Amino acid sequence: MTAPDDPGTPSQPDDPTDAQFGPHRFYPGEGGGSTQFRGARFDVADLRGVRFTDCDLTGVTIRDGWLVNVSISGYLRNVAVNGVDVTNFVSAELDRRHPERVQFRAGQTADDVRAMWDTIERLWAEAQELAGRLPAAALTEQVDEEWSFEQTLRHLVFITDAWASRTVLDEPMPYHPLGLPQSWYPAADAAALGIDLTAQPGYAEILAARADRMAAMRRIVADLTDDGLGRLCQRSPAPGYPDEERTVIDCISVVMDEEIEHYRFAVRDLAALESR
Fold it and tell me: How many CB atoms lie within 10 A of CB 81?
């Protein structure tokens, strides 16, 4: 099952097409958004403090720029800094810090999927233990405008509903009202799924929803067979997603990829909150 990663086809680590358990592909511009700056040029411009969130920066060129105290996150491919492609270096360092990434890419069988889910459950149990040592207010705090810990858990509820219950289990409307879609997800589509984007649930309620969805994933992976990994799921995951059919392993891979990446961001931000 050397198929690509989250809606992109890997050739290198962190390529949106990176081979992992299955194709969960990101295509340029998939998140939508304004096109008013497409092809724009900024010459001799002061862009200090500019922030780009959920932006497609494919093909961006920066010449003679001053990049000081710059933070970049996302899927990288052919990223050159002063003529040096840093993509593989960044990926290797992330693999060193987070070996679950390597385990994920190496997965081939149903047993591999189960072992990967064991790892994901362990990592998130550790993250929630760390979160439990912080004041309750810290769990709603956004570090550098990223999602709070509570928001991250709510997003993973939505991901499980969309890519596991909706597809693998063929449930027509599995969405929990406190689930949190991606920031670019149309509000009208979220409302159509019964999701309340203005909800402010308590931490206990969020943990209950999260535990229920993780249990659903545990049931799915427990029953997996190697032959069943290639079964086609007939439903598209949710409004706003690609319409093409996805296999069971494709859908499960999306969930696990999201779990791994959001765990990385969550523990980073929890560490920052704990150090204050």
Answer: 10
